[in-house]
Amino acid sequence: MTRLAMPKADEGVLARRGEIAEALRAIVGTEWVVDHPDGLRPFESDGLTAYRQTPLVVALPENTAEVQAILRYCSGSGIRVVPRGSGTSLSGGSLPLADAVLLVMSRFNRILEIDFENRAVTVQPGVTNLNITNAVADRGFYYAPDPSSQIACSIGGNVAENSGGVHCLKYGITTNNILGLEMVLVDGEVIRLGGKHLDAEGYDLLALMTGSEGLLGVVTEVTVRILQAPETARAVLLGFPSSEDGGQCVAEIIAAGIIPGGMEMMDRPAIHAAEDYVRAGYPRDVEALLIVELDGPKGEVDFLLDRVEQIGRANRASYVRVSQSETERQLFWAGRKAAFPAVGRISPDYYCMDGTIPRKALPAVLHRMRELSGQYGLLVANVFHAGDGNLHPLICYDANKPGELEAAEAFGADILRLCVEVGGVLTGEHGVGVEKRDLMPAMFSETDLMQQQRVKCAFDPDQLLNPGKVFPVLHRCAELGRMHVHRGQMPFPDLPRF
Length: 498
Description:
This protein is α+β, with helices and mostly antiparallel strands and 498 residues long. The protein is built from 16 helices and 18 strands. Helix content is 33%, strand content 19%. A hairpin with a 5-residue loop joins strand 8 (178-184) and strand 9 (190-194).
């Protein structure tokens, strides 16, 4: 069971478990409903495994009509619904509820259309991020956002969390690469936002839905933008005697007007863990390692590599190595992309944070994190998207040792508060979920949070979709000023309305 405060379970719904399961079987078929305790266990957490909760029942629809039917049934019966993709969320965004149907979208796994002429691909939300690139690579195209979990994470989950990746500094995060969505609202209505055209008229609801963490609707189809692979891509490894030197180098590269295709940084614990795991050729005698990739025409890449090397040496880089082949470039990235599982080999558990800060604050924040590491007595391995200031500190702990999880949580909360203090934000790409929910007041005022909840109420007035996530205090929609019509009568009917 999770130790977090979650919405109180509805005893009436719990008592109807069998009835609810039968109703869902009538919609998706007996094979695609899970309600046995042993079958439910694999779904009790997502990538944030510190928190667990057994769901009421799991339903795995195959098409939009089945999603519609499930949401209509649940909405009409007052049953909560938690949408889930591949379960790789690192913020507890798809943590189940004891009285909620867990709506698992993994059977939505088909690529529906590849349109090279319009540079667009339409897929179902269960298609993995990497498979989009694999489907178009033979024609020299790719999908730019590339989370380290791209081999497993689904595009629907990327939309829900507005995921990033190592190449998002230059090419943008998910919201910059999504063209259109099909979504099912809580009452079963299907809406389409955007399309293959460049811009849609009216309010930018597409951007609103991207990053909405399953609170506003269930994504059933996604159209993404694909890009032509650059003519040349080369990467350089820069090793530094301190993380502060590496952080300063990052700031100066951007200040020089250079926008790398990717710019990632690791500290000593992460470097050693990745090198032991992947054998990428990383230096072991440096405190910080910066991977900078330049892409574009060959002449431009060669020129910018020289500039980056000069900036690195001016910031005390003691190690410089430029990739000499595509295989070597991929090996550089293989170490970085395997950093999370690599750290898992050196610690029984780790807690992955996701704050984002201004680039100029990197040296000071890294210094303060080392102080906090000593204060809490827990190792922290830093792996982050240096170019856009998106930090991923991995706090190592042992859940079997009393008090260590609590210490890791407190350490992580201090890191996130620090991010806000220096002008940053609580999350860059993992979302708020349950992990950062109770820290939202550190960044937003009560008025800000209530305004965000009004948006939630516009789409989900009964608070049935993914409740208990994002908002530290969940207000009833009536408390937020939503118009209540009782038996056809509006309040104050004598007032003029526009």
